[in-house]
Amino acid sequence: MNCTNAIHEISNYIDGELEASVRIQLEEHFRECEGCATIVRQTEITIRIFSTHQTADMPKDIRSRLHEKLKQKLHKSK
Amino acid sequence: MQCATLNVGTGFGPIYSAALSTRLLAKNPKLSASSQNRLQSKIAREDEPLLVKAAKSGDATAFEELVNRYESKIFRLTMNITRNREDAEDSMQDAFMKAYSHLDTFQEDSRFYTWLVRIAANEALMRLRKRRPNQVSLDEPVQGEDDLIPREVEDWGPSPEQRYAQSELHEILDQVIDSLDPDFRTVFVLRDIEELSTEETAQAMGISVPAVKSRLLRARLKLRTKLDRFLRDRKPN
Prior knowledge:
The complex is a heterodimer of chains A (78) and B (237). Chain A is mostly helical and 78 residues long.
């Protein structure tokens, strides 16, 4: 497997969506190619930091306006 | 740790969730915080169909419980897609209002949350198209593969979390994701932040599974490259 093919499979590799034979070839390539091994490692770090450093806090004023609008909507449809 | 489903509303949803939560958490008292979150998420999935059925039959409290349950996640989603607070708020409000108005068309063969995400993502993308009409082409195929291979690769050394204070890291991540094309950003947000499956993402965006995979690959690689540039240019304090 060359670098171009390896890069194209990185996402499927991270998601565990590769057939065993392709995954083995890819891992062999990573052992031989420091560049691709670094890219896959950094891509995994990138996904991890974006998914763990996302807050789901909604500002209070935005929540109040949503619920006010919701009340009006639910009241209208009664 | 409190269960989010216990804090809100007065309908049967929270009570049902509370009973399940208490029973399951009592069986697993040593669960870590993240395991408890996953368990609560599973509980939320389990009673979601009951809430939807009740809401469809006219129980306003059940619909309010669904709103309480998902409002923060939907706001985070619309904020991540639009990158604009006003647009994010409007998209979120319209998504919940549309969901309520069209609840009778929800087929219940997929999760309510996925259906809601689809509505919210569409609302957010519509606003983004209005604001930046030349930047969003969600239904067009992605062209070119030549920029996929990074030209320079260097080890990052300590991870970004080790190198920066949390507030500084958030600022960096905000700038990096902000600079990603909306086409790619939306797929990345749905798959890697909201943790929808590839199929659910395809369903939410109205595109094919191969298109999701192709965009996700490019989004992840582009974000890595952008983060890499940022880390090289910006020395930690």
